[in-house]
Amino acid sequence: MYTGFRQRLQATLADIDAQGLTKPERVLATPQGGAIAVVGGRGVLNFCANNYLGLANDPRIVQAAKEGLDRWGYGLSSVRFICGTQGVHKDLEAAIARFFGTEDTILYSSCFDANGGVFETLLGENDAVISDALNHASIIDGIRLCKARRYRYEHGDMADLQRCLVESADAGARLVVTDGVFSMDGDIAKLDAIADLCDRHDALLMVDESHSTGFFGPGGRGVPAHFGVQPRVDLVSSTLGKALGGASGGFVTGHKEIVALLKQRSRPYLFSNTLAPSIAAASIAALDLIDRADELRERLAANTHRFRSKMTAAGFEIRPGIHPIAPVMLGDAKLAQDMARLLLDEGIYVIGFSFPVVPKGQARIRVQLSAAHTTEMVDAAVAAFCAVGRRLGVVA
């Protein structure tokens, strides 16, 4: 059987490669950081990690992980409700709830699992879920698992969201879900307007804060804090694997009854091993650092403004905004791959994004700024983009 199936797979892979859509993995020879080395020992500047505050491999977080490993061991070999809950997990859940000002928190092995476990648990066939068209794949997949009626509104279109709310008026419960920051574009959900519509139509509101937790909004409290609507958000999902040290793990935080039900029925929680205790210990340390990280957030904002303004002045098409995700729009998938390869030759580590990660015809290089970058690093990245961009005819 596999002989025929292998040929089918080989043809599919060849087609992916011919379209310039192959996604090669580059192997790092160092820990994560603003400056890294790839296998072979060559040093490059990293402009495509989610290391927003530069805390990945921060010695204080590494030390907390080591102490967690010594105190709590390597792993639990089980799930939470059997014999997989330790004090460090309860401490982290409480710390996350304090950080967001919520009632309770549930940990998952990733935010993908968190989003995969919410909708099926909370919503039944008489309910409705309403999702932004550009929400993360984990939200889309999570919604597919539930039996609720599904509505999708055009990205950021409040009139279309209102249409969905009106059309779903007869549903038992309605949940509007949106990314706080959309990971491919760096644009920010209109959460104040969304919250107003949810209040007006008596709908619940969920926000995925993976690309804002720790560094965006007052005190790093994210998009709800940016718009001052935290009390009007019913549940937040987010990750421990980006600004909070860059390891892995996710969570949902919000009303205590929601968290209680998730702990009883959410399948990714019930059937997945417990988050490694060393990660939980390090995440507690990361939250403590983030509470005192105004300088890092200011440096990140300055780097973001510098890169965006210089690249725009050079003639590149950059999605407008203030977020450290700064997509350099190229359109053609092969062009994006070629440009990323040539930039690596110039000492700048970036990745070309193409279908199915982004829609066809919207290939890009998604640059991500970090507090770990110096002004000189940012300027070096711009200079490399200009040199390669002229070579490929992207800019004059």
Write structural notes for this entry:
The protein has 2 domains: 134 residues, Alpha-Beta Complex (Aspartate Aminotransferase, domain 1); 232 residues, Aspartate Aminotransferase, domain 2 (3-Layer(aba) Sandwich). The chain has a 7-stranded mixed beta sheet, sandwiched between helices. The chain has a 3-stranded mixed beta sheet with strand order 1-2-11. By secondary structure, it is an alpha/beta fold. The protein contains 15 helices and 13 strands. A hairpin with a 5-residue loop joins strand 1 and strand 2. Helix 2 packs antiparallel against helix 12, helix 5 packs parallel to helix 6 and helix 13 runs parallel beside helix 15.
Task: Produce the secondary structure layout.
Blueprint: H1 2-18, E1 35-37, E2 43-46, H2 59-72, H3 80-83, H4 87-100, E3 104-108, H5 111-122, E4 128-132, H6 137-145, E5 149-153, H7 158-167, E6 174-179, H8 191-200, E7 204-208, H9 223-227, E8 235-239, E9 250-254, H10 256-265, H11 267-270, H12 277-290, H13 294-313, E10 325-331, H14 333-345, E11 348-349, E12 352-353, E13 363-368, H15 375-391
Parallel strand pairs: 2-11, 4-5, 4-6, 6-7, 7-8
Antiparallel strand pairs: 1-2, 3-9, 8-9, 10-13, 12-13
Short structural description:
With 396 residues, the protein is an alpha/beta fold. It is 44% helix and 15% strand.
Can you tag this structure with a few keywords?
single chain, 396 residues, alpha/beta, Aspartate Aminotransferase, domain 1, Aspartate Aminotransferase, domain 2, 2 domains, 7-stranded mixed beta sheet, 3-stranded mixed beta sheet
